[in-house]
Amino acid sequence: MEGAAAKRLVLDFFAELVAGNPACWNRVADDASWQLMARGKSYPYPTDFTKATYRQLVEESAALFPEGLRFTVLDAIAEGDKVAVEAESHGYTRDGRLYANVYHLRVELEDGRIQRVREYLDSGHATEVLTPTG
After folding, report:
1. How far apart are CA 91 and CA 113, in angstroms?
2. Full domain range(s) for residue 45
3. Residue 81, phi then psi, degrees to nearest 5
């Protein structure tokens, strides 16, 4: 898969994911890996995921945002079977804290499916907002 087709597959994945369409996971290889490029001992999530565990993270995280979490793709570029995505999120947690993060994702495709993702995000913001208050 090259360039424009790779970009379309990745954009379609995120559009379906945001819409809550479970068919989006069909675009991800069964043995895919998803790595959050986050640092810090207090970061509230693991950083290495399989397809199944990343899907579980996404589904469980939805409960943190009673009015939903908007995820917006701002830009995407592709070269060969690699797609770079710039995105942002915006939503309020159950306790009213604003979660507005920024992301850069490097997505690699193999055989027409998402195989590897490296997701860069503001892990300090995620830790600050998503860590439960005592």
Report:
1. 29
2. 3-130
3. -100, 20
| Rounded alpha-carbon distances, angstroms, from residue 98 to 37, 90, 93 | 21, 7, 7
Q: Which CATH number characterizes residue 88's domain?
A: 3.10.450.50
φ, ψ of residue 95 in degrees (nearest 5): -95, 15
Residue type, 123: S
User: What is the sign, positive or negative, of the torsion defined by CA atoms of 65, 67, 68, 70?
Assistant: negative
Tell me the per-residue pLDDT of 54-113, one tens digit each, with 9 for 90 and over: 999 888 888 899 999 999 999 999 999 999 999 999 999 999 999 999 999 999 999 999
Start-to-end CA span in the chain (Å)? 48
**Cβ-Cβ contacts under 8 Å for 98 (sequence gap 6 or more):** 90, 91, 92, 129
Cα–Cα nearest to 78, from 12, 132, 21, 131:
12
Number of domains in the chain: 1
Q: Which two tokens stand for residue 78?
A: 């592709």
Q: Say which amino acid occupies 46.
A: P
| Integer Cα distance of 24 and 15 in angstroms | 8
